[in-house]
Amino acid sequence: MANRNKAKGTGWETSVADYLNEQLGQYRPDWKDGDRAVRWKDPTDRDNIRRNVQEGAADIADLGVRPFAGECKAEKSYDLAAYVRQAEAEAKNAGMPFGVAYVKRPRAKTEDGYAVTSIRTHAAIVKALREAGY
Q: CB under 8 Å to 128, separation ≥6 — which residues?
């Protein structure tokens, strides 16, 4: 059972990373037709969204989505408070200003999943965007 759940979680992490990379223009236009190893426009770009290696006690989240640390959750029942707590703690470990939980929505496409933050994080994002001129 644990391996099945792990595979489900890994699949969700990969789906979220692929969706975000495609939407943010990090992948080549024909990336789905070829070898996954050559999907990047620029493999060295620090804005590429990649799955992180787990670090144990000092975990840095499932995805690096600069300036976010993204924690992916694909579970039957939701615990949003725990997901946000974990995302924020792992953002701190990763040296990122924002933590976000990417929560799988049952029987829905990746883009219809949820990106969940605390209101504190949301306010910090709004402040940063306003300071950048938005």
A: 97
